[in-house]
Amino acid sequence: MEAVRYWNLIISSAGCILAVLGLLQALINRYIDKRTRDFFILFFGIIIFYVVCIMLRSMTGSIEGENWAVLSRILMFAQAVLSSILVVSLTGFLIYKSGREIWWKEKAFVAAAALWTVYAGMLIYTQFSGTIYRIDDNNRYIRGDYFPILMIPPVMIMLINAQILWFRRKKYTRAQMNAFMIFVSVPAVAMILQGLFFGIHIIVISTVVSAMFMYFYIVNDQMDRYGRQLEENARLKIDILLAQIQPHFLYNSLTTIKYLCHEDPPKAEKALEDFMTYLRYNMDSLTKDGLIPFDDELKHVKEYVELQKLRFGDELNVEYDLECTGFNMPTLTLQPIVENAITYGIRRSGNGEGTVIISTRQSGDNIEIKVTDDGNGFIYADSRPDDKQTHIGIGNVRDRISEVSGGKLIVDSKPGESTTVTIVLPGESRECDN
């Protein structure tokens, strides 16, 4: 018997160390979603208390005396309750991972919770009756004739978990299936064996090791998906930026350059140089996620304007009123707004003629960049460009300004009169130099 307690103490100590490591990993890991992270923090926390109860019981179980018997009763009750909570927690986690956000209202979880309530009631009842198990005044553990009945609720909860796993298997990734199958099957077998053959706590080490396997499978799966999401975001960014170069704009610019090659070769050469610089800036922006000098963004805008003026000539007038230039801003935010002003303001006005004014000024601690056109205006809430595939919307620019610089974008449009789009950038050590 002493040898059994000795081995139980070693197993419990090893299990406690592993559970603490799992808890620390869950606390510092930022690659998993909040609910999954909270689940594993709770899960490993419960395991630690569960294993500590077993460790203390292994250390004090051989000491006779009524006071030690009271401590053993508390420890035995606590470890039984904690182990059952683990099983019910897994039920909720299985349901959540299958795509059900409100997992606690699912019939499977309600059934598992009801079985746990029955199990807890049986544990409380046996503390007074001793029909399932008892610890006598000499601190000796004695199983009652009805002990096998105590195993029925947790085994049924495990069967519910297995049923959830089977019927919702298509909702899980391969890694999730492997993780859940290990935790559903291994502790279940260990619990049945321990229920039949009381002695070494094989369920302790099996529970901890299975939990660690489940954790690392889930984390690796989410990290893989996180990596794939980053790749997808990168591809999406490329798609968005490439979509900004509108096919019609490309076609019209190249057609104009082709015409100039015959009529005015020097002007064609300059136009081709502007066009190449414009394209190069768009491509270079793929690798720039932070802030860039305003002068760089303004140069890109001027190249775009020059290309547009090749086509529209004096019908398009662009003026610059720049009180400040020595500040930074997110890349590809000013040019799309100017593009909107020309394409959806000036060109859609009554005669297709008009003026766009680009201005900058300092307002308190902020920098304001305004793009004003005297086109036909619009009702912003109902504004939806016709060319949804190739147009970079104002909403996307607003998001980029907010995420990169903490700034904001304000649209003031009067139908039939004019539109002013204002970019407000927080001061944050920016100098408004001329």
What is the top-level CATH class of the largest domain? Mainly Alpha
CA radius of gyration is: 35 Å
| SSE class | alpha+beta
Helix content class: 55-70%
Number of domains: 2
Which fold name fills CATH's third level, the topology of the largest domain?
Rhopdopsin 7-helix transmembrane proteins
Uncertain parts = 382-392
Sheet with the most strands? 5 strands, mixed
Distance between the termini: 87 Å
Q: Please give the CATH architecture of the largest domain.
A: Up-down Bundle
- Average of the residue pLDDT scores: 82
| Relative strand content | 5-15%
Elements, N to C (H/E): HHHHEEHHHHHHEHEEHEEHEE
- The quaternary state of the protein chains shown equals single chain
Spatial order of strands in the largest sheet: 4-6-7-9-8
Number of β-strand runs: 9
Which term fits the overall shape?
Answer: rod-shaped
CATH superfamily of the largest domain: Rhodopsin 7-helix transmembrane proteins
**Given the structure, what is the number of helices?**
13
Keywords:
434 residues, alpha+beta, Rhopdopsin 7-helix transmembrane proteins, Heat Shock Protein 90, two-stranded antiparallel sheet, 64% helix
Task: Explain what you see.
With 434 residues, the protein is α+β, with helices and mostly antiparallel strands. Helices cover 64% and strands 12% of the residues. It has helices at 2-28, 34-60, 66-97, 107-129, 147-150, 152-167, 174-196, 202-244, 247-263, 265-284, 294-312, 334-346, 394-405; strands at 133-135, 141-143, 291-293, 316-322, 328-330, 354-363, 366-373, 408-414, 418-425. It has a 5-stranded mixed β-sheet, with helices on one face.
